Amino acid sequence: MLPLAWIIALCRHLLSRWRWLMVLGLTTGLTIALGTAPSAGYPPYEPAAAVPAPVTTRGIGVEARIQEIEQTWETDYTAFLRSPSGLPPLDGAAVAATLAELNTQTGYRLGLVYIVPEADGLELVLASPAAAAVQYWLPDVPRSRFEAEVDNLQRQILRPNSDRYLAPAQQLYQWLIAPMEADLTARRIDTLVFCVGERVRSLPLAALHDGQQFLVEKYDLGLIPALTLTDPHFQALQQVDVLAMGATEFTTLADLPAVSVELSTVAEELWPGTIHLNADFTKPALQRELAQARYEIVHLATHAEFQAGDPDQSFIQLWQDEQLNLLELRDLDWQTLPVELLVLSACQTALGNEQAELGFAGLAYQTGVRSALASLWSVSDVGTLALMREFYGQLAQSQGGTKAEVLGLTQRAMIHGEVALTDGQLVNSAGQAIALPPSLQAPAANLDLSHPFYWSAFVLVGAPW
Questions:
Q1: Domain map (residue ranges) of the chain
Q2: Over the range 192-201, which residues count as b (16 or more CB within 10 Å of their CB) and which as e?
Q3: Distances from the Cα of 403 to the Cαs of 21, 328, 388, 407, in angstroms?
Q4: What does the pLDDT look like over 140-155, one tens digit per residue?
Q5: pTM (whole model) above 0.90
Q6: CATH code linked to domain 241-462
Q7: SS3 assignment, position 157
């Protein structure tokens, strides 16, 4: 007869195995019922873990903390970009006053969200007009845990035929948005402006998911380096001239055959403007056009790379071997020009690298333009064309809305299948179709433009108003 202790141990072992098998069976059954079979090599999908209630602080102490964050990030950006601002950092009261003025100018209700990953926890701060600033401290989310989830989302979202991004997207929503949701609702916030720390600057925030909707389905979004470094004045873009430049062929980088259609769509079909393609896309040509001081939108359809290292390692590719690095970009003296929006439609960012993130999120400040629209990763040629065509169409119809609203409308149209590829044609949300060149029809045949791979890469940096 077996000793009693052995029998007890064996029963405990079998009970633990039975529970594990039951969980696996239930999880797999739910996954299949939801239409998402477990992928080979991946664990079964699990819902986001609930977050313990954060430690919440309100009032004057939080306003002082806002000034500390502003000062830290102003120093980080200006030191990296070698471009001192000479501006004192805003405190919480000044931030609230600036947001109140912007609410009046735009007609929208803005909330400024600071996200600061720390070694021992995650700090969130919400600032908005007419209400006390709030700090939310999550001690259960140290930097190591947070960064692992960010890595997971950045890795999974680059797979346009998979929904494995949902688990990290929902977990990050629980950490970054859920703690402040009650305050966002009470303050009727409709636009979230993110001012964030390392590793969050290259996070596709629009793709965060609450279990029912993406974040961009609930709010319009923008990303700023620091409010101190952001132009606080609103100016609507209505029927302005566009300078559209780009290249379809490259010597060492992948060709972009859809760029010719992209430029004609932007600067002929939807907006008045001037086009420079391929051999006409040079630094002297760019300088000549900018010197005319007549363009409020500059659209560059070409490779741009934000890389590790000093800012002169990051560049915009012009025709053949000519490049503009980040330091040279500021030398074009954009601050004396009327440019409201700079668009880089084919960017690639070294995700997870601090220097690359500073270059990306600091793009508008570095150039001196009010706002910039750029991508975190290289989206397919046709996917970029689809988003840009919808964005400029929405911008033409916006009647003085904010740039964040226009990008939000664009991304929501793609999420809901209103922008689609059908029979070799690209159809926008207005039902208008254009024929794709024959060389692009086969690669575009099976693209699902509602997947966040195609729309969440595009981020509005600098002033989102």
A1: 55-229, 241-462
A2: bbbbbbbbbb
A3: 50, 26, 13, 6
A4: 999 999 999 999 999 9
A5: no
A6: 3.40.50.360
A7: coil
